[in-house]
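agent> Task received from the user: take the single chain below, predict its 3D structure, and emit structure tokens. No templates, no multimer pairing.
agent> Plan: (1) validate residues, (2) run structure prediction, (3) serialize to tokens, (4) report one or two observations.
agent> Step 1 OK, no nonstandard residues flagged.
tool_call: predict_structure(input=
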Amino acid sequence: MFLEVSLHVWAHHKNKALKNANVYFRSPFHAISSEFCALCQNETCMNRVGKMQQIRMHKFLRQCNYMKRVVT
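)
tool_result: status=success, residues=72
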């Protein structure tokens, strides 16, 4: 358990220092330890919010394009 926690913390520190976005370190039992990690939960919630905002923005743009076609 202690080894997993230390590997999980190490992965967070290592990922913060990375320059390449294609490389991402994870601990061996990331799925389990991420349920108790505040940083992982925050990242998951922010991804959900980002997806919802993208959907809302696309709906708004579709409505604007529709109104532009109707008016012109």
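agent> Step 4: summary for the user.
The chain has two domains: 1-36, 46-71.
agent> Done.
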